[in-house]
Structures are given as C-alpha cells and as structure tokens.
C-alpha cells in the first residue's frame, strides 16, 4: 500500500515538473524578423546612374532588380543612397531619384524626401 502511494506521489511530482518546464518553453515570444537592408550590389546601380545621362527602363533595370523584393520605403532609401552617392547637385538628385522610382514602379511613402 505504501509503495502505491509513493508511486502516485512520484508520478504527480514528475508531471508537475514537466508542466512547469513546458510552461517556460512555450511562454517565450518568437524572435523578431530581421531588419531589411539594401543589397550589397547597390554599387552597380551607382555606376549605372553615374554613367547614364538619360534614364530609361534599360539603363535602370539593374537598379530595379536589386530593390525588387524590398518594401517601398526601404527601396526608396536604398535608391536615394545610390543616387546621392553618384551625384553632388541637390536638385539633380531629387529629379533623378523621382525618375528612377517612377521607372522601377516604386511609390515612396508619403512625405519621403531624399536628404
């Protein structure tokens, strides 16, 4: 009789310990998604933008494929950095960036400015 009670107590203790450990493992939140970053090949886009006088779908296609999978806000920032690196004149930067975004069919977020 004593061994039956001891067996029940042991099983109850093991179940209680398992419930506590499973409760701790399930309660942890999932890790956050990785932050989106600009592609490393953005330098190729910089070279195209620097060399091209006229921007059209053929000259900008390399840039568009680089930022194709990114969110519109991240793609806008990546292309802004590429245009800003390749040019020094502020007015030209804004006009060329808007043209590149238009060709790539990327709608920048409201109020976005390339600074």
TrEMBL record:
Belongs to the plant LTP family. PEARLI1 subfamily. Keywords: Signal. SUPFAM superfamilies: Bifunctional inhibitor/lipid-transfer protein/seed storage 2S albumin. Residues 38-114 form the Bifunctional inhibitor/plant lipid transfer protein/seed storage helical domain. Residues 1-27 form the signal peptide. SMART domains: AAI. InterPro entries: Bifun_inhib/LTP/seed_sf, Bifunc_inhib/LTP/seed_store, Hydrophob_seed_dom, Plant_LTP/defense-related. This is Bifunctional inhibitor/plant lipid transfer protein/seed storage helical domain-containing protein.
């Amino acid at each position: 009789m004593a061994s039956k009670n001891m067996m029940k107590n042991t099983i109850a203790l093991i179940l209680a310990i398992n419930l506590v450990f499973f409760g701790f493992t399930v309660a942890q939140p999932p890790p956050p998604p990785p932050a989106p970053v600009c592609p490393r090949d953005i330098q190729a886009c910089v070279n195209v933008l620097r060399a091209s006088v006229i921007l059209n779908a053929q000259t900008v296609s390399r840039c568009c494929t680089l930022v194709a999978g990114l969110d519109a806000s991240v793609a806008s920032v990546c292309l802004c950095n590429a245009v800003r690196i390749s040019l020094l004149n502020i007015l030209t930067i804004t006009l060329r960036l808007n043209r590149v975004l238009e060709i790539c069919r990327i709608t920048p977020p409201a109020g976005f400015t390339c600074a």
